[in-house]
Design a protein that fits this description.
Elements lengths: L7 E4 L6 H8 L5 H4 L7 H10 L4 H4 L2 E7 L4 E12 L4 E8 L8 H16 L4 E7 L3 H9 L3 E12 L2 E11 L1
Parallel strand pairs: 4-5
Antiparallel strand pairs: 1-2, 2-3, 3-4, 5-7, 6-7
Length: about 170
């Protein structure tokens, strides 16, 4: 079965996710990673959730909420972005809420997404851009079978300085 294991379930966005999305999307400490430059309103996020009824082929992205099965707590979100159906590839975005980090949820969610992307969507490759200073995330992708295939020099600005970003790829 795709999108769940004994501990987690990846599910579609629901209207009740508005508050947690509002919290995450407006956390300015995360903006440098996602290249966000301005806050999101509740209205825009509500529209985004409403638009999530479209397929990945229509909107070229898929956001899934990471839910802990034991208590239905939303622990994070994982995305397929920049979906390219011609070349059968997509980018990956991943966020684990600060209250749930270092518990193995990121690895499990990534593994579930890989199974879905390669086994159900039949994608050829997935990729992620990871700031090099984010060693734990680079280790996460390496452990999941991704390879670092390049460095984008001074790719993102953080704290007035530029940081290099590693390009991680995983082929089917």
């Amino acid at each position: 079965m795709y999108l769940e294991n004994d501990t987690l379930r990846l599910r579609a966005l629901e209207p009740e996710d508005l508050d947690i999305l509002y919290k995450w999307e407006n956390d300015t400490s995360l903006w440098w990673v996602s290249c966000t430059t301005e806050p999101y309103s509740r209205y825009i996020l509500k529209e985004y959730i409403a638009y999530s009824d479209k397929t990945i082929y229509e909107k070229k992205q898929l956001r899934l909420m990471i839910v802990r099965k034991e208590d239905n707590a939303v622990v994070g979100t994982i995305d397929l972005t920049d979906f390219d159906p011609h070349n059968m590839r997509a980018g990956i975005g991943l966020l684990i809420d600060g209250n749930y980090r270092s518990k193995g949820y990121a690895q499990q969610a990534l593994d579930l997404l890989l199974d879905y992307a390669f086994g159900f969507l039949h994608l050829h490759q997935l990729y992620a851009y990871v700031p090099q200073k984010n060693e734990s995330t680079m280790h996460l992708f390496e452990k999941a079978g991704f390879q670092c295939n390049g460095i984008l020099k001074e790719w993102v600005r953080h704290g007035g300085k530029y940081a290099d970003v590693a390009v991680w790829q995983c082929m089917k």
